[in-house]
Design brief:
The structure holds two protein chains of two kinds. Chain A has six helices and five strands. Chain A is an alpha/beta fold. In chain A, helix 2 runs antiparallel to helix 3. The longest helix of chain A has 16 residues. The termini of chain A are far apart. Chain B is built from three helices and four strands; from the N terminus they run E-H-E-E-H-E-H. Classes of the chains: A alpha/beta, B alpha+beta. At the A-B interface, helix 4 of A face helix 1 and helix 2 of B.
């Protein structure tokens, strides 16, 4: 049986974010290369093809820097497309912050890449990611993570908390 | 405090550029403004933050409750409702 990976409905971050999709301290000279690293990480984990990376860059060119959704954090993504094989996420921290042209949230130190094959999967994965990123302490820890394992541990902790009764 | 319920009919829902336009418009008001996604049961969330708005996962044709609380609450709701009814900068969805 072929492993088709997580379904669109299954927005569990730990399954959407394999270790192969995490890059720590990547080099990027500008926002385009930062988005490209994030797209490359999606390609490396088998989630997308290179064309999706170009689509993510085109989205910023067309729609502006709204993807910088919190101080220091860009959410690189594009519409569901044939270049997306399955739902997935990548996380890239940058060795040097880059400017995206956002009035309040520049410079960017962390790029989260997101790909989904359909609209509903895109929206639910995005919402789960936004939940994960909505905690300022967690964002700071994520941006200063020094290993991929530390990033993965944060994701697993988040899901454990979310799953436990309040 | 004032509240209004409205269906978001533009193709992207409260995502991408429409979400950015929406939060920018909300941020111009002093009132506290929240969005609750009535169809998914998510929120209420801060309407002035795109990050929090994304957690509400408002897709096309979903019903939301907008709530404003503060000195300019009437103007805030009027502005945001007009924006949503106008399709948030996107082509209006065909009925």
């Amino acid at each position: 049986v072929a492993d088709t990976g997580p379904t669109a409905e299954d927005a569990a971050l730990s399954r959407l974010l394999p270790p192969s999709a995490i890059r720590i301290g990547a080099s990027a000279d500008d926002w385009r290369s930062a988005v490209r690293v994030s797209g490359d990480a999606l390609v490396a984990s088998g989630v997308t093809e290179d064309a999706y990376t170009d689509e993510m860059i085109a989205t910023v060119e067309q729609l502006g820097p709204y993807i910088v959704i919190a101080p220091g954090i860009a959410l690189a993504h594009s519409r569901p497309s044939p270049a997306v094989r399955r739902a997935g996420i990548s996380i890239v921290t940058l060795a040097r912050p880059v400017e995206f042209g956002h009035r309040e949230n520049d410079p960017v130190r962390l790029v989260v890449g997101l790909a989904a094959p359909d609209d509903e999967g895109h929206v639910t994965a995005l919402a789960t990611l936004a939940d994960f990123l909505s905690d300022a302490t967690r964002r700071e820890a994520l941006m200063s993570a020094t290993t991929a394992a530390a990033v993965r541990a944060m994701v697993v902790d988040f899901e454990t908390q979310a799953a436990s009764p309040r | 405090v004032r509240s209004v319920e409205i269906v978001v009919a533009n193709p992207s829902g409260l995502h991408a550029r429409p979400a950015a336009l929406f939060t920018q418009a909300a941020a111009r008001f002093g009132s506290r403004i929240t969005v609750e996604n009535l169809d998914r049961g998510k929120g209420p969330v801060d309407a002035k933050s795109i990050l929090f708005l994304l957690t509400a996962a408002v897709s096309r044709d979903q019903r939301i409750r907008l709530t404003a609380d503060g000195p300019d609450e009437d103007a805030a709701l009027d502005t945001l409702v007009t924006l949503i009814e106008g399709g948030l900068g996107e082509e209006a969805a065909p009925a």
